[in-house]
Amino acid sequence: MSKVGLIVPTLNAGKLWETWLQAFEQQTRKPDYLLVIDSSSSDDTAALAREHGFDVQVISKSEFNHGGTRQAGVNGFSAADIIVFLTQDALLASPDAIEKLLAVFEDESVGAAYGRQLPHRDAGPIGAHARLFNYPAESQVRSLEDRSRFGIKTVFISNSFSAYRRSALMQVGGFPTDTIMNEDTFVAGKMLVNGWKLVYCGDAQVFHSHDYGFIDEFKRYFDIGVFHTHTPWLQQTFGGASGEGLRFVISEMRYLMTHAFWLLPSAVLRTGLKWLGFKMGGALHQRLPRKVSRFFSMHKTYWLRSAP
Question: Could you say which of 177, 207, 237 is where a domain stops?
């Protein structure tokens, strides 16, 4: 049987953390190695993790790096064949969630997989639709040959609940340390180019959603624009994001017409802010002072490092 490691980056996980740990305790397949990488939480996140059997590595907040921190954990799991990633706000939805995600690796050609994200029970309609759009019920296996069908969505993945074959991850160089976000997308693209398959497992589920404010929507898409500007090979290989964006907007409008029509003006404004953020985070950010880019960004520590 394959050896499995679990890595969870944390920072002040709060009241939800106990519920998260309880859901983990109920899993039918627990990973063999458990690691929490905590960014110096001021609450009892680290202590509770230790009580539940996790090794805890504490780093400074400024030291956290989306790709680098995860890769540091991977480097410490040299005996693991498969490495699972979860975030502190992704609640395992059933006792067999991890078991089902790991099952797809019985196919030796699978390099990475990710599970379905269901909206939290208190999610707003806009946040709920985003999860329903991006995480349908049907599972899917994607390879490089599918890029003509799915475009940039071919490389879609989420480290809120995902797993990687360690050998495949290391073959493509591991997680990058110099991207502002989407380190998972970067790795998924590299894996597909190198002949591995990516699996979306609709049966492995977590509760995970966000109700972003207007400013956060802008900042998040500013950072997405920055990411794609510095990884042009992704869109050159798999296609641009505009078609998928339009499909999302049409789907969101239809969903809100049925479930929450009074939020349509909010959705229109959000769409405009996303578009503006993405454009400003694109090539335009390279002409902005770094202090301005940092102000617009959700991931501010990126700009304190040697960002391009």
Answer: 207
Residue 108: CB atoms within 10 Å:
9
pTM, 2 dp:
0.94
User: The tokens of 133 are what?
Assistant: 């759009």
Question: Count of CB atoms within 10 A of residue 233's CB?
Answer: 11
> What are the tens digits of pLDDT across the range 45-88?
999 999 999 999 999 998 999 999 999 999 999 999 999 999 99
Q: Does residue 220 share a domain with residue 203?
A: no
* Domain residue limits at 89: 4-128+137-207
Q: Please indicate, yes or no, whether residues 234 and 124 belong to a single structural domain of this protein.
A: no
Indicate if 189 and 224 belong to the same structural domain. no
Phi, psi of 139 (to 5 degrees): -75, 165
Q: What are 213-230's pLDDT values in tens digits?
A: 999 999 999 999 999 999
Q: What is the DSSP string of 191-228?
A: HHHTT-EEEEEEEEEEE------HHHHHHHHHHHHHHH
The crossing angle, in degrees rounded to 10, of helices 264-281 and 214-230 is 30
